[in-house]
């Protein structure tokens, strides 16, 4: 049986610097995330973002570049929001 952890807070470490993000969804199935009391994910398997006019450029550029440094990341899903 697989156990997953979901959180609103994600940390990405690049060259010993920690960057904290609040993606719309982040899911980890990594044992290191399950066996910790931390309220954030270090080893995301999936990250999802809903794009809006104010976040789209950042979500597609700098944040995506940082997310790609995570060796555990398997899927990055972006969804363009629609105005009604």
> For the largest beta sheet, what order do the strands appear in spatially?
1-4-5-6
Q: Helicity, in percent?
A: 10-25%
Strand fraction equals: 25-35%
Counted up, domains total 1
Estimate the mean pLDDT confidence: 82
Rg over C-alpha atoms, rounded to the nearest angstrom:
13 Å
What's the end-to-end separation, in Å? 41 Å
Largest beta-sheet characterization: 4 strands, mixed
| H/I helix tally | 3
Low-confidence stretches: none
- Tell me the number of strands: 6
Q: What structural class results from the helix and strand content?
A: alpha+beta
Structural notes for this entry:
This protein has helices at 31-34, 56-60, 62-67; strands at residues 5-7, 10-14, 17-21, 25-28, 46-51, 75-80. It has 84 residues and is of the alpha+beta class. The protein has one domain. A four-stranded mixed sheet has the order 1-4-5-6. Strands 2-3 form a two-stranded antiparallel sheet. The longest helix has 6 residues, at 62-67. It is globular and about 40 Å long. It starts with a strand and ends with a strand.
What topology emerges from the helices and strands here?
Layout: E1 5-7, E2 10-14, E3 17-21, E4 25-28, H1 31-34, E5 46-51, H2 56-60, H3 62-67, E6 75-80
Parallel strand pairs: 5-6
Antiparallel strand pairs: 1-4, 2-3, 4-5
């Amino acid at each position: 049986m697989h156990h997953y952890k979901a959180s609103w807070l994600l940390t990405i470490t690049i060259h010993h610097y920690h960057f904290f993000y609040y993606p719309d969804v982040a899911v980890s199935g990594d044992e290191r995330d399950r066996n910790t009391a931390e309220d954030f994910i270090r080893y995301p398997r999936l990250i999802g973002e809903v794009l809006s006019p104010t976040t789209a450029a950042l979500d597609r550029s700098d944040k995506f570049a940082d997310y790609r440094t995570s060796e555990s990341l398997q899927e990055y899903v972006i969804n363009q929001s629609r105005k009604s």
